[in-house]
Amino acid sequence: MATKDLTTAEFQQTLEDNDILLIDFWADWCGPCKQFAPIYEEVSEQHPEVTFAKVDTEAEQELAAAANISSIPTLMAFREKVLVFSQPGALNADQLNEVITAVKGLDMGEVHKQVAEQDQGDSQES
After folding, report:
1. Computed over its alpha carbons, how large is the radius of gyration of the chain?
2. Do residues 88 and 46 lie in contact, with contact meaning Cβ atoms separated by under 8 Å?
3. 75-117 pLDDT per residue, tens
4. Which residues are marked as active site?
5. What are the tens digits of pLDDT across the range 38-64?
6. d(CA 77, CA 3)
7. Helix (H, G, I), strand (E, B) or coil at 54
8. What is the largest CA-CA distance in the chain?
9. Residues 6 or more apart in contact with residue 112 via CB below 8 angstroms
10. Residue 117 φ/ψ region, left for φ over 0, alpha for ψ in the -120 to 50 degree band, beta for the rest
């Protein structure tokens, strides 16, 4: 599956519709982003069950701000609508494949339990 450009308007629906969603936050002027782009595209072809999206931080400033992007490229991985990985910096193909393997291997029952506990703790502090 090739990468898809993601806009603010499409973000929530894309998150809802995909079990595993990887997002590359990038900009045209960013050298490391340009180096990472063909790696991201190549790895996307090896994992058709994963949705690979790209967010142009210049065109989608609202989405980049909502995601607290302060450095690019930044890779985020969501599984079952939960952010499970976020890291700035370009990765090589092996590193990107390792992230995908780790995301696929997560015990999502445990992850959802931890998120619920975190949410409960946050609401008790308020």
Report:
1. 15
2. no
3. 999 999 999 999 999 999 999 999 999 999 999 999 989 888 8
4. 30, 33
5. 999 999 999 999 999 999 999 999 999
6. 14
7. strand
8. 45
9. 80, 82
10. alpha
